Amino acid sequence: MAGVTRTPTGLTQGSTAPAGIGTSTLRPDGTLKVTGEFAYASDMWHEDMLWGHTLRSTVAHAEIVSLDTSEALATPGVYAVLTYDDLPTEVKHYGLEVQDTPVLADGKVRHHGEPVALIAADHPETARRAAAKIKVAYAELPVLTDEASATAEDAPLVHEHRTDHHAAHVPHPNIVHRQPIVRGDASSAAGRADVVITGEYVFGMQDQAFLGPESGLAVPAEDGGVDLYVATQWLHADLRQIAPVLGLPEEKVRLTLSGVGGAFGGREDLSMQIHGCLLALRTGKPVKIVYNRFESFFGHVHRHPARLRYEHGATKDGKLTHIRCRIVLDGGAYASSSPAVVGNAASLAVGPYAVDDVEIEALALYSNNPPCGAMRGFGAVQACFAYEAQMDKVARALGMDPVEFRRINAMEQGTLMPTGQPVDSPAPVAELLRRVKAMPLPPEQQWETTEGADIRALPGGLSNTTHGEDVVRGVGYAVGIKNVGFSEGFDDYSTARVRLEAVAGEPVVTVHTAMAEVGQGGVTVHAQIARTELGVQQVTIHPADTQVGSAGSTSASRQTYMTGGAVKHTCEAVREKVLRLGRERFGTYHPAWATAELLLEGGKVVTDGGEALADLVDVLGEEAIDLELEFRHRPTEPFDLRTGQGNGHVQYSFAAHRAVVEVDTALGLVKVVELACAQDVGKALNPLSVVGQIQGGTTQGLGVAVMEEILVDPVTAKVRNPSFTDYLIPTILDTPTLPVDVLELADEAAPYGLRGIGEASTLSSTPAVLAAIRDATGLELNKTPVRPEHLTGT
User: A Gene Ontology molecular-function term (predicted)?
Assistant: First the structure.
């Protein structure tokens, strides 16, 4: 009975809980996913539900002259057709930072594929046919597709009446945000250089290419609100943007995470969330929206394409004297997270090197190209591609080994960033380079067998285009630096609710957060943390929803640090309450309750010497300990708008790659034979998941190096290749051997000393592959992705 104190019985020696941190615990969703049994958002179903569909613009920049929905409304099976004029409140725009994106086109379309109207019908095909009956007349306007057209003196403004806080600090209204960084005197330092190398680089627009398309189910509720089940990266940011448009208080808009089939930044912005809720509230019925692959290319932001110009100077003994660079990112029609991407690109623009004298300018444009925002690496990817190409060129001009040149200039703990911020945790750049170079190289000409050439191991693979006669091997290296967590003064926090109780004679923990599990394995790690901190084997992970405080976004390599930190912090508080309860109930039975360091292990309260004092179930009785707490990392600050100085980041992560490629120089075909990585992870909470994350990021970097690019017509700003037929991503046949060397140097300021690891491997894999192709061919290759015509000159 409640309140009854029992004497502890059956005590045994305490032991460390299995499946805690540091072990490669299997993912609870792993088997379901590989067997096809996992329920993704697109699998959701509700009785009597309708299907939503979005009509999108067929042009990139135009005034909407007329919009006739009468035929669509008259279609049997159609329940609703909504346009901008049907929106229920005065709040008709949304955005992560800048609320410049219309829910539906506001009399003008600013990019190809912009949502114009919504349809709800009893069958998805009925909805699509009804959409085709909507008559839209456009008066096309000039399109802005590059910096020259966007910043011309007479350029039309993508957004005529800007009121965001960046508007007063940019040199042209079609610039979303600009961040200069100046430290030292680059002009004076250039005079000390024995070698000065300049280069111009172009980075293509990459798609996140997640396999699960945008999808969700909106269900109207009896209280006049709505329940939304959705695949997203940030439940509370969605809520903050959805509720004002619906005219509802946040407590009446309830979000629950559904199965997510990948994200990589592409689900940080809204897609179908508001649209589904609007249709559900208008019709009074559940509404499901699932994008097909074509629509998915228009339904989310992409990685910013970039043009980058760099100047590196060095002395003849290999020391960098200065770096100047200018980075122009194309943000497309709406701001999304472009301001933060600019901050990252600028602050990380020189790479993981110690350089005292720098001049950096980074900016993002408004244009009529597709909107761009968050993608794995977030501004640091584009910069790494360029600065690592520069490091190879400078090393070549000096006659130095490229790895040795990098080692000479490698930053270390205590180095000042270009922003003036000291790197106050391990920065093992030189060691990572040493490790990745020391890995054994794969054998030469692996395609040769006793039965002839194995075409699968040759450039071109099963297309049987070459038998090795013009194949040349190349080896390339690269290293990168990425920040972890939200930066520039953002109040970055996460919340965790932890409940400990006795159920059927066993201690059980329930962990409840709003963290979006998008495939990164956070649900596994949260259970490991709870087992470690509370010594309990049975851990249940509550579905993520907005009934608990925000966990922030599953992005910026932050979730294990932040929400993992919140789970750890809350478990520690629960543990203290357990021990306090134990002292109250059993303190008179053993002096150790008052004098020893007490732990929870193996479902018991034990001393640090391993002596068990009580079973947890006896301590708890019928009482449950239930706490919800927030966790914050140390504060950061905005970068100065003139000098870029400031402690803008909380942590940095580092990875180095060595790429081995074989190139058919006659046909322009590339086979990446191996892509080895060494990365510092601080502490591997789940070693198997860590390796998987590093290999996944490496593969995305490989994709943008040799095949991935969204092609946008430079005249019409229309997307040319919105399909996986024409937008290529690496398959198992394209993916090479991916050896990983994990280094664990703890960051004392982070939970368990961990370092966010999800993005760093995406940075350096791309320039390593490009460096290897340059090594094989002798070509300059300043653009991603490398295509056959770039290698053959045809």
Answer: oxidoreductase activity
